[in-house]
Amino acid sequence: MSYFNRFYKKEKLVNRSFQIDENLYFKLEYLSKNVYDASISKLVNASIEQMISNENICIYGKKNKSSISRSFLIRESLLNGLYNLKEKYGLSICLLVNMSIRNAIIEEENENKARIMKIKMFR
């Protein structure tokens, strides 16, 4: 196994703008600045990639009605995957992107809770 397998091969990036739930965007911003060595676009790409691979399509009710338009650099293969999901489920690309971000943030929060519980158990 190469040391560099953790990195993706070069791929065309496509600039796309989406209406993103404001709360989701602020959480991505926090993760990018304080937790991970990754841009917001890379976090969004990781979220989309996971959604495409597991097809975890969960429509959720928005508590916050505010959304903001943001541009992201999306890997071309992931954009194609989003179009496939759009065809399959009849949902907008924007909604799919918001779902993928929400799924990723929920998973991140659950992992953090589990880490905190482990720390408390060993004290």
**Strand order across the largest sheet:** 1-2
Number of strands: 2
CATH topology: Arc Repressor Mutant
Report, as a whole number of angstroms, the end-to-end distance: 37 Å
**Major sheet:** 2 strands, antiparallel
- Unreliable stretches covering 5 or more consecutive residues: none
The total count of helices amounts to 4
Examine the secondary-structure arrangement and name the CATH architecture: Orthogonal Bundle
Binned, the helix content reads 55-70%
Structural class: alpha+beta
Molecular shape: globular
CATH class: Mainly Alpha
Explain what this protein looks like in three dimensions:
The chain is an alpha+beta fold and 123 residues long. Helices cover 59% and strands 15% of the residues. It has helices at residues 22-35, 40-54, 76-89, 93-121, and strands spanning 13-21, 67-75. It has a two-stranded antiparallel sheet. The protein is globular. The model has no long low-confidence stretch (mean pLDDT 89).
Can you describe this structure in just a few lines?
With 123 residues, the protein is an alpha+beta fold.
